[in-house]
Amino acid sequence: NAGVTQTPKFRILKIGQSMTLQCTQDMNHNYMYWYRQDPGMGLKLIYYSVGAGITDKGEVPNGYNVSRSTTEDFPLRLELAAPSQTSVYFCASTRISGNRETQYFGPGTRLLVL
Amino acid sequence: DQQVKQNSPSLSVQEGRISILNCDYTNSMFDYFLWYKKYPAEGPTFLISISSIKDKNEDGRFTVFLNKSAKHLSLHIVPSQPGDSAVYFCAASAGNNNDMRFGAGTRLTVKP
User: Fold this and answer.
1) Which of A18, A111, A113, B36 could form a disulfide with B89 if both were Cys (CB 3.0 to 4.6 A apart)?
2) What share of chain B is helix, strand, coil (3-state, %, to 5)?
């Protein structure tokens, strides 16, 4: 299993540009998540999905959109990049174990908006 | 609103000694707590967890202690090894992972 994969690893965007961060998992997990991590801060949840066709907002959804057309893929879309979106983005998926869940994270995408 | 706080941004210990990483939380509804370990250029990896019905969970060299009355948890690593050098995040959730809150992380350095 490749686990959770993310592309690209690093990207520089100009203000107002758009891009899609890709996330794929091959573990047949139903739940997928997008987080951002700013310097000196913990991870904050942007969007999550409990299954194909279902998405919902997390703590910091503004400026982002997601879709979940398949179980494997959960892309994150930035329509109008802003400097405040400079961050490291992590995708995660969940395996249910016992009563609670354990998240598996991708390696991250580092985004710089100038 | 920082509901999960790790007040020590960094910690340095000698190989073979105990590492103690601390975490405080404010939301009394949190009932599940996790520690993640993160190496540079990698995503966080799950380390150990504890449910609020317990006050201790042990897995090899790693032990997590939960003090619900103080809203405090700690991760003990003993003996510490150089390979343990990483950033450690504590996280907490209430009911499900859809509202998991993370601390800012503590960078642990274990010196040979």
Assistant:
1) B36
2) 5, 55, 40
Q: Do A106 and B43 touch (CB under 8 A)?
A: yes
Instruction: Name chain A contacts of B21, Cβ cutoff 8 Å.
Output: none
pLDDT at A83: 96
Whole-number average pLDDT of chain B: 94
pLDDT tens track for A88-104: 999 999 877 665 677 89
Q: Nearest CA to A96 among B42, B97, B94, B75?
A: B97
- Asked if B97 lies within 8 A of A94 by C-beta distance, the reply is yes
Q: Is B48 left (phi over 0), alpha (psi -120 to 50) or beta?
A: beta
CB contact under 8 A, B46 and A4: no
Tokens 């179980």 found at: A71
Residue-wise pLDDT tens for chain A (114 aa)? 789 999 999 999 999 999 999 999 999 999 999 999 998 888 999 999 989 999 999 989 999 999 999 999 999 999 999 999 999 999 999 877 665 677 899 999 999 999
CB contact under 8 A, A43 and B102: yes
